[in-house]
Each structure stands twice: as C-alpha cells, then as structure tokens.
Design a protein that fits this description.
Length: about 120
C-alpha cells in the first residue's frame, strides 16, 4: 500500500468508521459527502479508493485504518487532527446509534494521534 494524502486518508478512515457496524446508514453517507465537499471543492473520482475499501475483509479493517491514520497524521496539523476527530465523532453518531465497533475504532484513532 502506498502513502495517501490527507484528504484521501480521511476518506478511508471515515468509510471504515461507517462500515464497522455492518451497516452504512444514509445519515453517515450525508456526513461523508459533507467531508468530501470540504476537502475536495472540485470534482474528484474516488472510484478507485472505494474499490480498495470495498474489497477489504472485516479482519483487514484495523490494519487499513491504522495505515491511513498514519498517512493523515503525517500530512496534518494538530488542529486538523482535532477537527477530524470531532467530525469522526459526528459521523459515528449520525444514525443515533454508536455501535461498539464504531466506538472501538474511534478510540483507536484518538489513541494513534494522542488526542
């Protein structure tokens, strides 16, 4: 796997956070679109990224998540990471149910970034 830039890494992190509970709620899709609109003010094709994510098996999610968390960390400021964590929290709460696995990955992100 090759290093991703910050916006792409963030997309991977959010997509995994939204998938770990086994359900991709419409409210989560709205939050991810919000992230994309902010990070990619121009149209970008994320088909390749989505294909990579969709081919992951649940047992691969943690390693993939940690890899992209490191990529995001390398290209971001402390403030950007703090803002991303807040946004990630709003994502896992978007459907009004925080699944144990969503919380586990959210805590993992905070620990990886020392937040």
């Amino acid at each position: 796997m090759h290093k991703s830039n910050k916006p792409i890494a963030g997309y991977h992190l959010l997509m995994i956070l939204s998938a770990v509970d086994g359900e991709f709620a419409p409210e989560e899709g709205v939050k991810i679109k919000e992230y994309l609109a902010e990070e990619f003010p121009f149209r970008i094709n994320l088909d390749n990224e989505l294909e990579v994510i969709s081919q992951l098996k649940p047992e691969d999610w943690k390693d993939h998540f940690e890899f992209h968390a490191r990529c995001f960390y390398d290209d971001s400021t402390e403030k950007e990471r703090e803002n991303f964590v807040k946004f990630a929290k709003s994502l896992i709460k978007a459907d009004n149910v925080v699944h144990e696995d969503e919380h586990r990955f959210y805590k993992l992100l905070k620990n990886l970034w020392n937040i």
